[in-house]
Each structure stands twice: as C-alpha cells, then as structure tokens.
Amino acid sequence: GEDVEQSLFLSVREGDSSVINCTYTDSSSTYLYWYKQEPGAGLQLLTYIFSNMDMKQDQRLTVLLNKKDKHLSLRIADTQTGDSAIYFCAESIWSTLTFGKGTMLLVSP
Amino acid sequence: KAGVTQTPRYLIKTRGQQVTLSCSPISGHRSVSWYQQTPGQGLQFLFEYFSETQRNKGNFPGRFSGRQFSNSRSEMNVSTLELGDSALYLCASKGTGSSYEQYFGPGTRLTVT
C-alpha cells in the first residue's frame, strides 16, 4: 500500500539550514513533491523531483532522493522566519498525490 | 496568470444538509483534483476530473461526488452532511502533456454543526 511518513516537528534558528525528511513506500511513484502550507492557506508547490533523479536544486531549496531507501529530503538553506510553516511531502502515481502528515518547521530569530 | 480559485472560502452547514463547492483551475489546465484535509486524517484524495470525466476516485463514500464542466471548472457535492465532514477542501489544477506541476487553491473551510 501507499504510505508517506515525515517527522512531525523541526525547530531551527534563523540563518541555519533546515532538513526535512520523508520516506515513502510505493516504488512506482513517478514524481515526489514538496508543498508548504501556512496557517489558513492552501498548499504552495515548492519543488518536485522526478523519480529517476538523485538531486534537484532550486535557489535555497535542495531536494535529495534516495530511491533505493525510498527516502526524500528537503534542505532549506539560510532559513528565515518566513519559512515557518508546515511542509508536506507527497508521492504521485499518475495524477494522484499521497501526502505525509506534514512537518511543522519553526524558525526562531 | 490567475491561480486556482475556490468558492466559497468558508461555509457553515448543519448535519443532514448538502453542500456544493466550486473550483476554477488555472487557465488552460484541464485536470482538477479534490482533496480533503482534516487534523486527524491529514490530506486525502477524493477524486480527479479530466475533460469532464472522472479519471480517478479515492476511498470516500458515495455521498461525495463531483463533476467538471466544459470550461474545466469543477464542483464537488457532499450530501447528507455529517460532523466528520468538517474539513478544509482543497482543489488542485494540473496542466496537460509533460507538466507534472499541481497547483492548489486556497481551499474551502467547511464546518458542519
């Protein structure tokens, strides 16, 4: 079956790097996504990676994918207080997304 | 380009009533998916529509239904509302072809009393 797991909470200081981890179970996933959700808002697409890639960098964001271990991570460089939010990883098979429960990132000044 | 819009943003209904939520995808996008978000269950897939046809369906009772119009706008309907239907309902819009980017709207917050 499909299951996506994330740690629930991460606290960092402003300026540090944040690393949010995720594991998934379905080896037929085609794309893996990271979304950000701020209070009272919808989901903001941050980045995504194709399942045959190992890494993708997009400005302050770096996504690493270990397909053998079904492990995905999102690194945010120079984390800012505005990055405080809940981060969801999701795997997709065709167009259906299966989400983790989300990681709450708290950035303190 | 305008993003995904959902109406209404907030809704309060009573048990037993029915409700219709609306989603307008990004211009040119033909795929619309619906998700339910609750604190207990997280984000769960409801269904996906593409070119007015339901392409995929999640594990929800038949009280949850949807449709898509020729302009790609989509509606979802929940009949005989239960307290447990209280949730944030999100729709996602996806382009065609090689685009795998799915963009979400702000959601409709449904409260059932």
| Shape, per Cα inertia axes of chain B | globular
Q: Report the helical percentage of chain B.
A: under 10%
Low-confidence stretches of chain A: none
Secondary-structure class of chain A: mainly beta
* Mean of residue pLDDT values of chain A: 93
Helix content of chain A: under 10%
In N-to-C order, the SSE pattern of chain A is EEEEEEEEEEE
Largest interface: A-B, 23 and 24 residues
Q: What percentage of amino acids of chain A are in beta strands?
A: over 45%
Count the strands of chain A?
A: 11
What is the radius of gyration of chain B?
13 Å
What is the N-to-C succession of helices and strands of chain B? EEEEEEEEEEE
Structure report:
The complex is a heterodimer of chains A (109) and B (113). By secondary structure, chain A is mainly beta. Chain A is 0% helix and 60% strand. Chain A contains no helices and eleven strands. Chain A has strands at 4-6, 9-13, 18-24, 31-37, 43-50, 55-58, 61-66, 71-76, 85-93, 96-99, 103-108. In chain A, the strands form two sheets. In chain A, strands 2, 4, 5, 9, 10 and 11 form a six-stranded mixed sheet that branches. In chain A, 33% of the residues are buried. The mean pLDDT of chain A is 93. Chain B has 113 residues and is mainly beta. Chain B is built from no helices and eleven strands. Chain B is globular, with a radius of gyration of 13 Å. In chain B, 35% of the residues are buried. The mean pLDDT of chain B is 94. Classes of the chains: A mainly beta (109), B mainly beta (113). At the A-B interface, strand 4, strand 5, strand 9 and strand 10 of A face strand 4, strand 5, strand 9 and strand 10 of B.
Produce the secondary structure layout.
The complex is a heterodimer of chains A (109) and B (113).
Chain A: E1 4-6, E2 9-13, E3 18-24, E4 31-37, E5 43-50, E6 55-58, E7 61-66, E8 71-76, E9 85-93, E10 96-99, E11 103-108
Parallel strand pairs in A: 2-11
Antiparallel strand pairs in A: 1-3, 3-8, 4-5, 4-9, 6-7, 7-8, 9-10, 9-11
Chain B: E1 5-7, E2 10-13, E3 19-24, E4 31-38, E5 42-50, E6 53-57, E7 64-68, E8 74-78, E9 87-94, E10 102-104, E11 108-112
